[in-house]
From TrEMBL:
This is tetrahydrofolate synthase. It is an enzyme of class 6 (ligase). Gene3D superfamilies: Mur ligase, C-terminal domain (3.90.190.20), Mur-like, catalytic domain (3.40.1190.10). The keyword ATP-binding applies. The lineage of its organism: Bacteria, Bacillati, Actinomycetota, Coriobacteriia, Coriobacteriales. Belongs to the folylpolyglutamate synthase family. Residues 1-22 are annotated as: Disordered. Its EC number is 6.3.2.17. PROSITE patterns: FOLYLPOLYGLU_SYNT_1. It holds the Pfam family Mur_ligase_M. Keywords: ATP-binding, Ligase, Magnesium, Metal-binding, Nucleotide-binding. It catalyses: (6S)-5,6,7,8-tetrahydrofolyl-(gamma-L-Glu)(n) + L-glutamate + ATP = (6S)-5,6,7,8-tetrahydrofolyl-(gamma-L-Glu)(n+1) + ADP + phosphate + H(+). Residues 369-477 form the Mur ligase C-terminal domain.
């Protein structure tokens, strides 16, 4: 398999270098301006508007965002976009992609979800979170566009759209990015791909899919293949595509992506580990098949971190180049994410990246909420793992850094009721001796007492059950702990530690 991947890389290198770079800016040398007057919001008013939109929940309808963007003069056509989907790893991959494109000299926007603490964190330009004023302006513009669209629909005898929170945020981001003169926007799918609001953006040139796991099954489907089908829908004619390590297994899932690519006339580039054992947590049980007819990239971890703060070192080989001595003070699972980002950027730009810039961008890229040390003495570490696959990935890194179970920090756990909490609890119970549970402010939060009961069923009796995260953090002020089980928990702990 390893030799096959080397052969594939050599076979496709010359052909790949002949690919024309995508047009990086769709309306180059043109300045975007709102086509109608907008009554500006204060930051507090923008938050109130988003809160009111929560009543619509999740609405799988692209036309809502498409019509709102059209009403605004299609701000998304003033820059090119890259879209990233996947069950796990897509936020980190998006961050690395934005960091690399910025390092290459492009004014780069980043759109991720959800936020850890505050809404504006979802939107960045050149590594900086947009200001509360710009955020409020974007929400005001998106809201006014929605009002105008629904007025026209009512006049035409059509039912008005239920404009969701995510619809509003996505449109607001496109307005802000266009007004700021962004050249490239890196868009993380919120959920799935086919009906995700980011898929309404009409300037997407390249896509990547990190991998597939069982999550959001009530919306995306209850099998890996069904979920893969929803995410594979972002592979479309005219776009370049990279399939991450998590799409390689099982074969039935990989087939979903390859069939979609074939139907759209897209030749995907495959990212695979050079050594299967270096990607166990990211892959499902099955044989990793060779595809000599497709361009391939690979990564190899040449040094594993030995302690918190130690750097992982990797080598990435693409159809165009080999990037060596890539260092990141991150757990080893991030190698798959930044490797995917490198290949995606090459595909988007149609050329090799500057190796020194790549090294600098990988080392400097922040991944908040992902194996994130928010307090050093005593240790408080947060991770946004929130489903069995991501929990397994996190625990693999933690146990490799702290193999002695008695030396590990305590676990502070909270979860959402609509996740596979029982399986996550089983995984946590094998790794931690000292366990504390709490519940977040999310309306989907599992009650702390119910979470505690699940741990008891797995032979672990929590040492503390807290009604909320603030109470838990106060009680653990002199205790080393890791907080994981939901993105909301990671965000609430980060917010408390910041203040």
């Amino acid at each position: 398999m390893q030799q096959d991947m080397k052969d594939q890389s050599a076979q496709h290198q010359a052909a790949s270098q002949q690919v024309d770079a995508p047009q990086v800016v769709s309306r180059q040398n043109k300045t975007y301006a709102l086509p109608f007057d907008v009554a500006e919001y204060s930051y507090e008013q923008s938050l109130a508007q988003l809160k009111s939109a929560l009543r619509f929940g999740i609405e799988p309808l692209l036309e809502t965002v498409q019509d709102m963007l059209a009403e605004l003069g299609n701000p998304d056509s003033y820059f090119s976009s890259v879209q990233i989907a996947g069950t796990n790893g897509k936020t980190s991959t998006a961050r690395y992609t934005a960091s690399l494109l910025h390092a290459e000299g492009y004014k780069t926007a980043l759109y991720t979800s959800p936020e850890l603490v505050e809404y504006p964190e979802r939107m960045e330009i050149d590594g900086r979170v947009v200001s509360p004023q710009d955020f409020a302006h974007g929400i005001a513009a998106a809201t006014q566009a929605g009002i105008r669209v629904n007025q026209k629909r009512r006049a035409a005898g059509l039912r008005p759209y239920d404009i969701t929170e995510f619809d509003t945020l996505t449109v607001a981001a496109m307005v802000i990015y266009a007004e700021k003169g962004v050249q490239v926007a890196v868009l993380e799918c919120g959920m799935g791909g086919r009906w995700d609001a980011t898929s309404a953006v009409n300037s997407i040139k390249s896509v990547a899919i990190t991998g597939i796991g069982l999550d959001h099954m009530h919306i995306l489907g209850d099998t890996l293949e069904a979920i893969a089908g929803e995410k594979a829908a972002i592979i479309k004619t005219g776009r370049t595509c990279v399939l991450g390590v998590g799409t390689a297994t099982p074969a039935s899932v990989e087939d979903v992506f390859l069939q979609q690519a074939s139907a759209e006339g897209v030749q995907p580039c495959l990212l695979r580990p050079k050594f299967r054992e270096q990607a166990q947590a990211e892959m499902h049980e099955d044989i990793m098949r060779a595809h000599p007819d497709l361009p391939a990239s690979s990564y190899e971890i040449v040094h594993m971190p030995q302690a918190l703060g130690d750097a992982v070192c990797a080598r990435v080989t693409t159809p165009r180049s080999t990037y060596t001595d890539l260092l990141a003070r991150k757990p080893s699972y991030q190698v798959a994410n930044f490797s995917l980002a490198i290949v995606l950027c090459e595909q988007f730009l149609g050329r090799t990246l500057d190796e020194k810039l790549v090294r600098d961008a990988i080392m400097a890229c922040p991944t908040p909420g992902r194996f994130d040390v928010v307090r050093t003495a005593p240790l408080a570490l947060v991770d946004a793992c929130h489903n069995p696959q991501s929990v397994q990935t996190f625990l693999g890194s933690l146990t490799s850094l702290v193999p002695d179970k008695t030396a590990r920090p305590a676990l502070l756990c909270a979860a959402l009721a609509d996740k596979d909490v029982n399986r996550m609890v089983a995984l946590f119970s094998e790794v931690f001796d000292a366990i504390y549970v709490t519940q977040t402010t999310s309306p989907r939060a599992l009650a702390a007492i119910e979470l505690a009961d699940l741990f008891v069923q797995h032979g672990k009796h929590p040492q503390g059950v807290f009604a909320n995260v603030e109470e838990a953090c106060k009680a653990l002020s002199s205790t080393a702990f890791v907080a994981c089980g939901s993105i909301t928990l990671a965000g609430e702990v980060v917010g408390i530690m910041r203040h």
